[in-house]
Amino acid sequence: MNTQHEVLALLDEILSLNGRAAAFTTHTPLLGAIPELDSMAVVALITGMEERFGITAEDDEIDGAIFATVGSLVEFVDSKLAG
Asked: What is the pTM of this model?
C-alpha cells in the first residue's frame, strides 16, 4: 500500500477537493493553507484515517504539527501502521 497515495485520496474525499490533492507533494502545507481544512474537517480526517488504515489516533497524539504538511500526515499514518 502506498500511504501517501491513500492519504491524498482521503484528503481529496474528506475536503471535497475535486482532484486537487493529486498535485500535492510531501511539502504541500495543509493546516492554515487549505481553507477546507477547518476544525470539523480535521475531526473527519482523523476518523477517515482510522477507518481506512485500521489505526487508532489517541487524543494526546493529535496536534497541529501532524497536519502541517502532507509529509507530516503521511509520517503519522506510517508510524501508526508500524507500531
From this structure: 0.93
